[in-house]
């Protein structure tokens, strides 16, 4: 049986985490903040990561365009204990990653671009002008059982 789109998305996220040892958490989030796939420690709530990612992305887009910098490519936040990276996955979703303070920024951005491309490709598979989340919705409905 072929892998579902949700399984391929989770696999792409797992590959990203394995290739980036300083990543502590990662998620694929829709532009409106809904989680699509995640690999998070127990201390992080999936919905909260999704909501914060959408808020940061929205603010970043407003700042980039409003200040004449053009379209937003990525959001990078540096905190006392590490970094948060957000990057578009081919305009289909957002790849969010939380990394340790020891992370090499250049390496992280390189791996983020690679992973975002792969994730975007997964989300674009079989898509014409159809709903980009149709397969994920079908996967979720199938795993949830029959609606009554």
Summarize the structure in short.
With 148 residues, the protein is an alpha+beta fold. It has helices spanning 5-19, 46-66, 105-124, 134-144, and strands at residues 23-29, 35-39, 74-79, 82-88, 94-100. The protein has a 5-stranded antiparallel sheet, with helices on both faces.
Describe the protein in words.
It contains 4 helices and 5 strands; from the N terminus they run H-E-E-H-E-E-E-H-H. With 148 residues, it is α+β, with helices and mostly antiparallel strands. The chain has a single domain, classed as Dynein light chain 2a, cytoplasmic (Beta-Lactamase, 2-Layer Sandwich). The chain has a 5-stranded antiparallel sheet with strand order 2-1-5-4-3, with helices on both faces.
Question: Could you outline the blueprint of secondary structure elements for this entry?
Answer:
Blueprint: H1 5-19, E1 23-29, E2 35-39, H2 46-66, E3 74-79, E4 82-88, E5 94-100, H3 105-124, H4 134-144
Antiparallel strand pairs: 1-2, 1-5, 3-4, 4-5
Helix pairs in contact: 1-3
């Amino acid at each position: 049986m072929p892998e579902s789109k949700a399984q391929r998305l989770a696999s792409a996220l797992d590959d990203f985490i394995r290739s980036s040892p300083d990543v502590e958490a990662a998620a694929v989030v829709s532009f409106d903040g809904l989680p699509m796939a995640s690999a998070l420690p127990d201390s992080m709530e999936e919905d909260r990561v999704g909501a914060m990612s959408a808020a940061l992305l929205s603010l970043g887009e407003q700042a980039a365009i409003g200040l004449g910098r053009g379209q937003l490519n990525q959001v990078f936040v540096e905190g006392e204990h590490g970094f948060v990276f957000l990057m578009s996955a081919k305009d289909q979703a957002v790849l969010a990653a939380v990394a340790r303070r020891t992370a090499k920024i250049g390496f992280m951005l390189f791996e983020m671009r690679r992973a975002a491309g792969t994730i975007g490709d997964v989300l674009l598979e079989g898509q014409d002008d159809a709903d980009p989340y149709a397969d994920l919705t079908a996967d979720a409905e199938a795993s949830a059982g029959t609606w009554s």
